[in-house]
Amino acid sequence: MRDEPFGPLAPVVAFKTFDEVVERANSLPYGLAAYAFTGSARTANMIGDALQSGMVGVNSINISTPETPFGGVKESGYGSEGGIEGLQAYLNTKFISQG
C-alpha cells in the first residue's frame, strides 16, 4: 500500500476515524487519483478537500472526462491536461498596463 499501482486494484483498509483515513491516504508520496465511498453526506463533503490528490471521486469512479482536468500532485505529476487547465500550458499570458 506504499506503491503507486497501475491496474484495476481495489485496496481496502479498515479505519476508525475520518482523521485516521485522511492521514493514512495523505502520507503517500503520490496523489494522482483518490476515491472515497460513504453513506454520510457530511463525510462526502469533507473528504474531497481533505485528500491531497489531483482528482477525487466521491461515491463515483467517473473522474476523467475530456472536459475536465487530468493530473496529479506530489510524485504523481505536475500540472494538468484536459479542460481549460490543460490549455493554459499552451498559452502565453501577458499583462499590459497603460497610463
Features:
99 residues, alpha+beta, two-stranded antiparallel ribbon, two-stranded parallel sheet, 3 helices, 24% helix, elongated
Question: Please, could you describe this protein's structure?
Answer:
This protein is 24% helix and 12% strand. By secondary structure, the chain is of the alpha+beta class. The protein is built from three helices and four strands. Strands 1-4 form a two-stranded antiparallel sheet. A two-stranded parallel sheet has the order 2-3. The model has no long low-confidence stretch (mean pLDDT 84). It has one domain (18-90). Strand 2 (33-36), helix 2 and strand 3 form a beta-alpha-beta unit. The protein is elongated and about 60 Å long. The termini are far apart. The protein has helices at residues 18-26, 41-50, 83-87; strands at residues 30-31, 33-36, 55-58, 73-74.
For the largest beta sheet, what order do the strands appear in spatially? Answer: 1-4
Q: What's the overall geometry?
A: elongated
Helix and strand element order: HEEHEEH
- Strand count: 4
| Rg on CA atoms, Å | 17 Å
Largest sheet properties: 2 strands, antiparallel
Helix content: 10-25%
Structural class: alpha+beta
Q: Beta-strand percentage?
A: 5-15%
Low-confidence stretches: none
How many angstroms separate the termini?
58 Å
**Alpha plus pi helix count:** 3
Q: Give the mean pLDDT.
A: 84
How many domains is the backbone divided into? 1
